[in-house]
Structures are given as structure tokens and as C-alpha cells.
Amino acid sequence: MKKRNFIMTITTVYTALILYFMFFGFNRLEGRGDYIEAGYEFLFIPTSVPLTFPNLLFSWLYDFGNIAAFIPFGILVPLLMQINYKKFIGGFLLVIFGLETLQTLLYLGTFDIDDVISNTLGATIGYVAYKVGFTSNLTVKKLIASSLSAIILIICVMLVSEILEKRVSSIQPLQTIDEVTGAKPQTNQMPAFIIGDEKIQPQSNLYMNEGNASQTYIYTIEGKEELILYLNLGIPDDEEFQGEVTIVADEDKKFEMAEDYLKEFLTMPMPLEVPLFFEYEKMTITITGNVKLWDVGFTELKHWWK
């Protein structure tokens, strides 16, 4: 009986501590006005992996805490009552969904399915640790085995997260996007030219208007996430200073620059960055006059094996 009361006391104190951090920690009261202004937010689609390999960023510590903080519940609850994993995790999910919803309704946070997944992983790791070591005949050897099982499971979560995590790719030449309609850029025997008394020798591609009213390059970018274009552009010194370039993603104009602005931008570092952070199906580059784009590249979020 004393043992049960001791476990109950630990569980109560620890639960109160977790509730404090969920509803009052991390300056939630001070930031409540921002949540009220933004309105209720319910994020039901996972946007990140639970836990990558360790780094020195606060975000990693936060992700680790979202898992580690709930490991004790996987140990304490089964110690208080005989319960199988299905009933335990079912009850845990009901409680954590309720707390996340309450957190949102009180404007003290946002319902985030990523947090629910991480919390549930933590509770599951704790339950496995309980099954390994916390039996009626508790020994130091079993406690060590229990701790090692928790550590191994956390490492497994990291490994799976690293496999699933999407990261920013290296800069790739734009012509590596295979699905193209309209004109194609020059990629071989590209001529050099002078812009601002600097000799430019394109290395990967050259986009230009070849004697037409305009030249259009159309790329299919469906499925590419967090796409960022890198542009080098200008008008050669020995050509009439006129023309413009526009970039449209579906129906959204993402970039436009005419000769009036090019003089100013010649003094800025190249390449220029054009983010396309929403999911678009088609990107259209239109060039008029004597504007040239060269060594145009892009990055995207992708898995390591792609």
C-alpha cells in the first residue's frame, strides 16, 4: 500500500509539472495575445519528423522534450494499474487530444498533431521500458535493461526520422527539371558577354529572347516543395538597354524586373533568390528585349535518397 501511495504521489506531482509546462511554460501567458489574434489553430497534418540526430539548436531540445517528457507516463500508469498496451495508449491518446484541444481553446497554444505523435512515442517508449524491467521482482539488472531499451528506442526514432526528413537540396541547374514546354535554354557553347564591365561566361544555362517579341520557358514543378530559384540576370553593355523578365507560378506573379530596375540591381550581389514556397503545378519564365538570365538554378526539399 505504501509503495502504491508513493507511486501515486510521484505520478500526481509529475502530471502537475507537465500540465504547468503545457499551459503556462514557455511564456504562454505573455504570448496569449498573439494566439487570440491568430484565432484557433488546429494542425491535423504532420509537418515534421519527431526527432532527428542531436544538434545544438533549441528546436532539437524542444523535440526531444516532447518525447522524453512523456516516457515516465508509460512506466507510472502501468505501475498503478494492470493495463495492456492497447488500453493504455488508447486512454493516453484521448487525454493528450483533450489537452491539446483545451490548450488551443484557451489561447495558450496550438493543437499540433506533431506534438501528439511525439508525446505518444514517448509514452510508448516508457511502456516498453516498463515491460522490460519493472516487474514484481525488480533488480538493478532489470533497471539497466529497462533504461537501455528506452535509449535504443529513442535512437530508433532518430534513425527513422532521419530517413523520413526532407532537407534542402544542393543548387541544381533549372534544366534538370525534365518536363518542359516552350523554349529550352542554351546549355552548350554559350556565348560570353560583358555586363557592367564584367565578363560573364555562363556555366550551366543561358535564357534569352532570341529575336522574338518574347521568349517563354515553362516548367512543370508539381510535387516540388519549398522551391527556391536562383537568378543571375542583366543586359549586356553592347546591347540596347531594354527588356524585362517575369516569373509566374500558376497564376501568381512571383518576380518581375524591367530595365528601369536592372541598373540598380547590377550593384547587388547575385544570384537573386525567388522563393516558391507553396505547391505549384507550373512555372513560366518570360523574357522580352535584351535581358539575359544565366546559371539559373533551384533548391527544393527532398529526401536524402532522391
From TrEMBL:
The chain crosses the membrane at residues 6-26, 64-81, 88-108, 143-164. The keyword Isomerase does not apply. It comes from Metasolibacillus meyeri. It comes from the Bacteria. Keywords: Membrane, Transmembrane, Transmembrane helix. Pfam families: VanZ. The lineage of its organism: Bacteria, Bacillati, Bacillota, Bacilli, Bacillales. This is VanZ family protein. Residues 13-132 form the VanZ-like domain. The keyword Membrane applies. InterPro entries: Teicoplanin_resist-assoc, VanZ-like.
